[in-house]
Amino acid sequence: MAPGSTRPTSRDVARAAGVSQAAVSLVLGGKWRGRVSETTAERVREAARDLGYRPNLAARNLRLGRTRTILLVVPALTTEFFAGVYTGAARIAAEHGFGVVLYPSPEGVGPARDPFHSAQAALDGVIASSMAAGALTAIRGDQLPLVMLDSDPEGSLGAATVNLDIADGARQVAEHLLALGHRHFLHLAAAIPSWTFEIRARSLAAHLAQVPGTSLNSTHAPISIEDALTAAEAALAAPGARPTAIVCDDDLLAAGAYKAARRLGLRIPDDLSITGIDDLALATAIDPELTTVRLDAELFGERGMQALLAVLEGRTPAEGDIPVELVVRGSTAPPGA
Amino acid sequence: MAPGSTRPTSRDVARAAGVSQAAVSLVLGGKWRGRVSETTAERVREAARDLGYRPNLAARNLRLGRTRTILLVVPALTTEFFAGVYTGAARIAAEHGFGVVLYPSPEGVGPARDPFHSAQAALDGVIASSMAAGALTAIRGDQLPLVMLDSDPEGSLGAATVNLDIADGARQVAEHLLALGHRHFLHLAAAIPSWTFEIRARSLAAHLAQVPGTSLNSTHAPISIEDALTAAEAALAAPGARPTAIVCDDDLLAAGAYKAARRLGLRIPDDLSITGIDDLALATAIDPELTTVRLDAELFGERGMQALLAVLEGRTPAEGDIPVELVVRGSTAPPGA
DNA sequence: CATGGGAGGTTGTACGTATAACGCCGTCCG
DNA sequence: CGGACGGCGTTATACGTACAACCTCCCATG
């Protein structure tokens, strides 16, 4: 590369190899069988290597009318959960020659910035978590192929949806705690308006109500340890029957509940059982280790990407929720043990 | 939009507004002052709105020869640290009309996949963490403007570097523990070949050596709680003088050290002091809360992006490491307290 | 010997945009 | 009254690629 010169184009390669630009495109595009001789092809490849040629993706995208780039819209990346979703989605995408661009919705329901303008890349499709509330209004009305993660199948504008079987997770938590003998519950819920969290709450309430004599209170907090601490401490200190178990919408909230329990001198699990959802690394770092619902984030991302690829190819995405699994650890025990 | 039709182009807008395509480009590009009348401009804007026109970014990128897209190459997103870096970088980028695409290097030093092929987007520049070892070889030799995060200023191919003052962090840890009276140390180091971790180790050793009679052993583990648990347990159970303090390269490693201490019946901080680096949410979730070095991940990302923007504009990036701050919490105390 | 056809290319064009260069028309000044 | 100039546009072109269509040998075949 001479200084000041720009990147080499396919025409530069052609000149160096003594062929036409079209021949370069054919060879490097792998479509030269029966069109270009092996010796010429090798000469082209060598010239490309020497010049350090990289195809101009903007030009290729323009020509082909597609970019093989998918936008993944997620809420903030404050836990590794959506990192896992990204990893799974990116893996499947790579297998099909697609790239994935991440758009973490600015904190919460911020000023609805435009993900399409912000992620400058030209896009072939979008996968969006229903929790990325701020960005969703901007996405609606765009005619890009869309797959929603964890979204109300009825209210997703006809877009395909991929869901974790989160209602079943709530069922497993409820049955586990009921079997241990708990009757008085606190639901420490995420203060995010999202279909997912509504379903969790409804499923939890429904399954707890199957046993007579149970009580269920709720309190809400933003998904952060400090906010959860504040909310849990207030709820535990409130007058009336103290719950013997706290069901949290998220492991981070559970960590806040741990801190509240410590402040109030309550031992876990003897005085108070706590459950989470996600199974983050955090879950086994705290003492006692957290009983939680394991969500397979990578599988979630994989299924989301598979669904989008199906949409892009005109196929119908596979049906079926992704199963989740209760992992029983040390934070749950019979009440008053 | 009639069904089956493709996205509207600027020419469609022009037709609808009864003007030329060039006029549309001028109006929508904001360069119409003195070239197009206000009434015509308004007509164009209305037509664009009615048709739901979005400029084709591939075409724009091709025409302008730049994409306003930056690639951020990071190691795996298993903690929120690099999520913070991304957030900071993306904020500064957005202020300058740039987008950021994330490339998490496949686990560790995986098969050196090509970040440029994987992230399909056409790029204007690259910011790369020196910890993303696998991807770095692919980046080298590419003539894209490059900024390295936490990299040896000497060995970064002349690329600009932005560093956290990690050596000073190690100094603060060393002086804190020495002041408490500790003399026998274990360094639980990250098993990642990276300049950053070498510097931490060197700085730690140098500052501890300033006090006569100190001892320092090292053990290495991949950055995960379970691996750290294994390594720390082995090191603590080894014959010889047991360390009274463990200095960890990372909060995740520190969490592993907590678990090792619990298994061995050692109380923190009475029997064993532990320190980390990063100040993740995890640090205040575990009990006792972790004394650690707070790294400002978002500022790190901001400075990285500012440096890259400077490079792109031909300016010289600002000098100076980013200061870090020891946060003293409950995991450190005088030995044998 | 004419004809077909395959191997090995080349020429030409379009993707959608931004912008340089060029009108055209009315007005105003010398 | 000529021409310069400003306001309001238009026409033409280039960015780099992928591929359809074409072209030219040369050999085999009837």
TrEMBL record, chains A, B:
SUPFAM superfamilies according to UniProt: lambda repressor-like DNA-binding domains, Periplasmic binding protein-like I
Alphabetical keyword list: DNA-binding, Transcription, Transcription regulation
InterPro entries per record: HTH_LacI (IPR000843), LacI/GalR-like_sensor (IPR046335), Lambda_DNA-bd_dom_sf (IPR010982), Peripla_BP_I (IPR028082)
GO molecular function, one term: DNA binding
Sequence ranges assigned to domain HTH lacI-type in this UniProt record: 8-64
SMART domains: HTH_LACI
Cited Pfam families: LacI, Peripla_BP_3
PANTHER family found in the cross-reference section: LACI-RELATED TRANSCRIPTIONAL REPRESSOR, TRANSCRIPTIONAL REGULATORY PROTEIN
Entry protein name: LacI family DNA-binding transcriptional regulator
Organism encoding this protein: Streptomyces chiangmaiensis
